[in-house]
Amino acid sequence: MTTPAYINPLILQWARRRRHLRISTAAGLVGKSTNDWVEWEDGLSFPSFSDAMVIARALKIPHGYLWLTKPPT
Question: What is the spatial distance between Cα 3 and Cα 25, in angstroms, rounded to a whole number?
């Protein structure tokens, strides 16, 4: 069993939109389903810590940004 990374769904959405990616494209970049990504952005489930690292690399943000309370300026 993997430990969930309780990332901020709003930051995930911000980072994806910042790169102008559709949900399906972002999910494909990290090897996950569109449904997984939608659940992450909706806060219904959370990625694993290893998935969070892949997400950060794919979205070109520092890993720690995923836990911010609001998007950086």
Answer: 25
> Of all helices (H) and strands (E), which one includes residue 57?
helix 49-59
Of 23, 28, 19, 24, the C-alpha closest to 59 is: 19
Q: Helix, strand, coil proportions of the chain in percent (round to 5)?
A: 60, 5, 40
Determine if the pTM surpasses 0.85: yes
C-alpha to C-alpha distance for 71 and 48, rounded to whole angstroms: 21
**One-letter amino acid identity for 2?**
T
CB 19 within 8 A of CB 10: no
Rg of the Cα trace of the chain?
A: 11
DSSP 63: G
Q: pLDDT tens digits for 20-32?
A: 999 999 999 999 9
